[in-house]
What does this fold into?
Amino acid sequence: MRNLIGPEMVKIPFSKATPMCPALLDAAPCAMPAAGSPAAIYQLAVHPDTPDLVEASLTLPADGAGEMWLGAQGVTRGLSHQILQPRCGAEPLVEQDRGWVKPAGCRRVDWQIRFDTVRDDGADPARQRSLYFPDRSWWLLSEGTSLLRPKHAGLARLTANLPVLGGGEPAASAWFLPDGDAPPAFFALGNVAGTTVGAQGVRVTHVADRPEAVWRMGLIALQRRAMAWLTEVMRVERGGRLLVVWLGMNPASGRASGAAGDRSFVSGYVAGDPRGSSLSLMTLAHEQFHQLAALTRPGDHPAWYGESLAQFYALRALSRLGSRQREIQALRDKFIDASRPVPATLLDWQRRHEEGDAAAYPQFYTQGATFWHQLDALLRQATEGQHTLDQDLPALLALPTDAATPLPATLRQQWRTQVGPAVDVLIRRYVGG
Ligand SMILES: [Zn+2]
It folds into this structure.
């Protein structure tokens, strides 16, 4: 625990303090509170004797003195929280509606975060846990399971008594937390030696539980190639700083999972697995797609839309950049299969997902990727390869869609002109509407 610095905040070593909104880069005017302006402030304090039990506090601005519901954002996404004993002074908060109620007159709430200690069998990124790595004395903070946030949380600031590394840029030694509805954020705390690589103005800092294993597997080089290709095909026009945290998963799980926020993501890898690099490449390209989409074009879309595009382009990245042809084909076939029956449309699955049906989400990856693949094939066929889905990707990301207009109307008209009625048949069958 010799790396603990504090009690005061420490300077973040690589801060450029560029003023930008981490969650809403293109929003104008910038919704981020300026340093020193009233905003909710989260402070973490790690104590050497109890490294898995981290003290946390939330100090609300003056307008936050009223009664207020507080809870972990991830609970609404089916995750379990890691919050212990939330209280105002000595007064415990009352539990209510999968969270707690802060009484009026209290502006500071204290609690403890119970970090899971990572053992040899690794951790599953999809559970989005806050983790403590005893061998290297660093911590992974998962905001979604560990911080008490108000229901309509605005951007908030995070500081700690040891170095913090996140995605985006810190300002005045504090990191910004995403808005309530935005994807989650992850931070590495403590003794973290990150490796930073860049492509097209997007800098990615990698942190790993076992840096040498991640390096040996070529995962950082793979990520860089995936990023270079994705920034090109997505036409990413602005730079940014992203954080990737690599977590070794138990080989017995037989899968690699990930969890993406707008600026930080956690990617699983299976150390020593000969299938590792293809599976890991697909997973990281998928998560990277989400981040780059958020970085450049924040069009509002339902889950089916973002997930299916992310998966289709993850498979495209895998085909272009992967080296094991048989594995790549097997992975592609798992997702893209035009002969698979289509008993329900993607809009149906979206409704079922919103009603809490866990069977719906995997359909976004399989039926969704199959839809985009077939649309791409129709476009290529009709234009003798002159026009592909890639040309429409920036517009697909920029234009908002919803249940009433599941695909951008201008693009649908353009495809109709290029392909003819077959495009409407395909859309009705797979997407609906
Ligand atoms: Zn995804």
